[in-house]
Amino acid sequence: MSTHHIRVTINGTVYEGDVDSRTLLVHWIRDDLQLTGTHIGCDTTACGACTIIVDGKATKSCTMFAVQANGRKIMTVEGLEQGGKLHPLQEGFHEKHALQCGYCTPGMMMTAAALLQHNPNPTEHEIRVGISGNLCRCTGYVNIVKAIQYAAEKLQASEQVPVSAGEGS
Amino acid sequence: MATEAFKHGLGEAYKRKEDARFIRGQGNYVDDVQLKGMLYGDIVRSPYAHALIKRIDSSAAMQVPGVVAVITGKDLDAAGLAWMPTLSGDTEAVLALDRVHFQMQEVAFVVATSRYAAADGVAAVEVEYEPLQVVVDPKKALAPDAPLLRPDKKDKQPTNQIYHWETGDRAGTDADFAEAAANGVVVKQDMYIPRIHPAPIETCGCVADYNKATGKLTVWLTSQAPHVVRTLLAIVAGLPEHRIRIISPDIGGGFGNKVPIYPGYVCAVVASLTTGKPVKWIEDRSENIASTGFARDYHIHAEIAADKDGTVKALKVHTLADHGAFDAAAQPTKFPAGLFHICTGSYDFKHAFVDVDAVHTNKAPGGIAYRCSFRVTEASYLIERMMDTLAHDLGKDPAQLRLQNFIKPEAFPYRSALDWTFDSGNYEGALKLAMKNVDYEGLRREQAEKRARGELMGIGISSFTEIVGAGPGKHFDIAGIQMFDSCEIRVHPTGKVLARIGVQTQGQGHETTFAQIIAAELGMSPDDVDVEHGDTDTAPYGLGTYASRSTPVAGAATALAARKVRDKAKKIAAYLLEVGEDDLEWEPGRFFVKGTPGKGKTIQELAFAAYTNCPPYLEPGLEAVNYYDPPNLTYPFGSYICVVDIDKGTGQVHIRRFMAVDDCGTIINPMVVEGQIHGGLTQGLAPALYEEISFDDNGNILGGNFQDYLIPTAMETPHWETDRTITPSPHHPIGAKGVGESPTVGAPQAIVNAVVDALAHLGVRHIDIPITPWKVWSILKEKGLTAD
């Protein structure tokens, strides 16, 4: 098995490492870089707990090899908070009680961040379509929709960019 | 004034304390734990549902780079650990010895230096099997010529039948049925509640770390009941209990899946004891669904005897329960069918008789889980389906039939025909509120108009009664340990509080709601109260969080521990203010001298005095512990109304409205309660329309991953509407009842009743869940009603 030297920008920080060809991106991020906010919930790309933003696109990091991330710009949940200030999505999830066990939350917020980047003012239906690749077993989604609406309003009012930290876009 | 600092007590939507770490990605789940030198375990599993193991060859696996050890059943047998007790009195193979009993059963445990090397090792273990006849149908398991699936216990159980259990008044029930057959009405219905899986988004796993120098075993483990795990591990593995520490850190959802002890945990512990290194084992999703605690799998036949006007008299239920290969239902020892005999529901039956036959098949063990207080979901489903069937047969409105038969508010405490004492309830209040909220009469008019136009619209009702909060300990135990719960409160000198509780949160928000209970009792802000849980070295002994028991049991312990603190604070106040205790009055946050409101001491001042100026006749310090054994269970209830439209072209059921009126007694935090209801309703929707684990004739699991096992996404889940009534529990210190499971218990039958109601005029009486578009379309096709 060959190993590869990769260099990836995550949340604005450059990380370098040697990875096996088969190492999944999510394992590199979690186990090697110890950015454990990105979670694993299935093995079929169905649950979305591992969602991160790669070059501006919401991406399930369990279905990408670490080597494929070489040279890319990535944002994980750890990059949402900037300068000690919560991202409007983080605020919204807290204010609207959009999380319970917290396990799907990082992936859900990253999907939402990418959604708001492309569609700053989504309808409820567009939000539901947008997060339909992310499973939540606790909340029944009602409050997640409200949290994303909260963030959309706040972002529009502030003209903040939804995905800024790791340079997603 | 102290009272101004007292905010967010009971009944306030105080925002959750635990969110701060979760929204930053700083939760600490089991798979986040990384220890120096940690090894990884992975499991070799059986591809067959029933087979003899002829040979296991791990020599090739041991050659795989990174593989450190391969543990087989024989290795465990040498240490006396090949079998472990289940929570239902059976024994379960940790690693199969000579026979596998279900597909994906654990056969060997590979330990390696990385996840990837462990997986390589699993692929390299050679196992030779001799396939045996597979039994997946519980009815066939009872046939005289069925192969004996558990020869290991043939001496005490010579057939595949695990137990026959019955309760109620058979003679009285039979007499009512004879009378109804002659002069009233008898309705009968078969229904199957299929096997489903709780499938929390985080799977099960652990990190076992045995320190040879200290002899201490620390295990981070996805457990809803860490103290019970510690005690059972001590008993089974022969380890000293004070040298076992179970840490249940942040848990990514439980829903009953994380109550039992699974073979992977035991193997990781054995591997750590053997290697002296920490060993992590995390199952993948397929392993989770295929091998850990499933739910339901009840084949039910139910009958109601009633007068011609619809007044119910007696209920008779026979159930065939498929428990799979090992009897591993996680439930109170004395209740083999759990609390299934709550099945008389919200109605005033004079007599009832219930029996359950449980059998082994070649399927994974389990049998309780999925957000259900010990078979209450099955019970509520059957009675709510039966009430609709009775209404249908009599041509009565299902709401009116329910109102006619409800236990009346003045009848509480109410002794049911199956010997439960319901603490409090106002069933008609909840149903009438739900009917008003949806304009029930208007919906019925709309339905009639649509039906005249050939459109399919249905309205379904479920007026469920739950039973939660086990103990009392004299009736309820898990593996012999009585089902009490506990809280320990320490008030620090500066008036800040650290509380530890015996239950464990998997998303319920205990760090917030239990802080609110203490804050309300002591008159302080919940900001000043931190709640810890899940670490057996620090938390007081508790039976864990499942079956909606945290608030009814540990919540009561918490309120009573806080009252002990307040009582001691009162003695200190009397000393400091130089008055008798009887001369003191309490307002939230302080004691003051009656008639002299200006002369008082705040709880913070009293805490400081407890450490700096304590009365000489008292022990210094301000702490309290309470172990609470409840005098009764609590009985939350509610009424749900579901409105569906059915697409004649596809058979798709569209939930247009779902109104949930819940009554869980006193509400600690309405935001958290509503969140629990949203989530619970979604887990009620799931089995009604989507989720099912079935098997082919060879015992191959169908639906063993998230591609095939359809957890509702935001697209399938409707916008839930909620409302509430409040009927406090008379015996709970703050009147709370518990709510986590009510919506999962109550929702499926509302949806099924709505679908059947939409099709009732076509002669449809029942459809088994999950109600897939295919099932509905097939019915419409048969009736010649499918749209192009």
Instruction: Count the domains of chain B.
Output: 4
Q: In what range is the share of β-strand residues of chain A?
A: 15-25%
Order of neighbouring strands in the sheet with most strands of chain A: 2-1-5-3-4
CATH architecture of the largest domain in chain A: Roll
Q: Which superfamily, in CATH terms, is the homologous superfamily of the largest domain in chain A?
A: Beta-grasp domain
Q: Which fold name fills CATH's third level, the topology of the largest domain in chain A?
A: Ubiquitin-like (UB roll)
Which second-level CATH architecture of the largest domain in chain B applies?
2-Layer Sandwich
Structural class category of chain B? alpha+beta
Strand content of chain B: 25-35%
Global mean pLDDT of chain B: 97
Number of helices of chain A: 5
Largest sheet of chain A: 5 strands, mixed
Q: What is the count of β-strands of chain B?
A: 34
What class, by secondary structure content of chain A? alpha+beta
Tell me the CATH topology of the largest domain in chain B: Aldehyde Oxidoreductase, domain 4
What does the main sheet of chain B amount to? 7 strands, mixed
Query: Any idea of the CATH class of the largest domain in chain A?
Result: Alpha Beta
CATH superfamily of the largest domain in chain B: Aldehyde oxidase/xanthine dehydrogenase, molybdopterin binding domain
Describe the protein in words.
The complex is a heterodimer of chains A (169) and B (788). Chain A has two domains: 3-79, Ubiquitin-like (UB roll) (Roll); 88-158, DNA polymerase, domain 1, CATH 1.10.150.120. In chain A, strands 2-1-5-3-4 form a five-stranded mixed β-sheet, with helices on one face. In chain A, a hairpin with a 2-residue loop joins strand 1 and strand 2. Chain A has helices spanning 25-32, 88-95, 105-118, 124-130, 142-158, and strands at 3-10, 13-20, 51-54, 57-60, 73-75. Chain A is globular and about 45 Å long. Chain A has five helices and five strands, in the order E-E-H-E-E-E-H-H-H-H. In chain A, helix 2 packs antiparallel against helix 5. Residues 165-169 of chain A have low confidence and may be disordered. By secondary structure, chain A is α+β, with helices and mostly antiparallel strands. Chain B starts with a helix and ends in a 6-residue tail after the last helix. Mean pLDDT of chain B is 97; it is low at 1-5. Chain B is α+β, with helices and mostly antiparallel strands. Chain B folds into four domains: 2-17 and 485-628, Aldehyde oxidase/xanthine dehydrogenase, molybdopterin binding domain (Aldehyde Oxidoreductase, domain 4, 2-Layer Sandwich); 46-133, Aldehyde Oxidoreductase, domain 3; 203-252 and 258-289, 2-Layer Sandwich (Aldehyde Oxidoreductase, domain 4); 295-470 and 632-782, Aldehyde Oxidoreductase, domain 4 (2-Layer Sandwich), CATH 3.30.365.10. In chain B, the strands form ten sheets. Chain B has a seven-stranded mixed β-sheet, with helices on both faces. A five-stranded mixed β-sheet of chain B has the order 9-17-16-15-10. In chain B, strands 20-30-31-34 form a four-stranded mixed β-sheet, sandwiched between helices. The interface between A and B is large, with 59 and 58 residues.
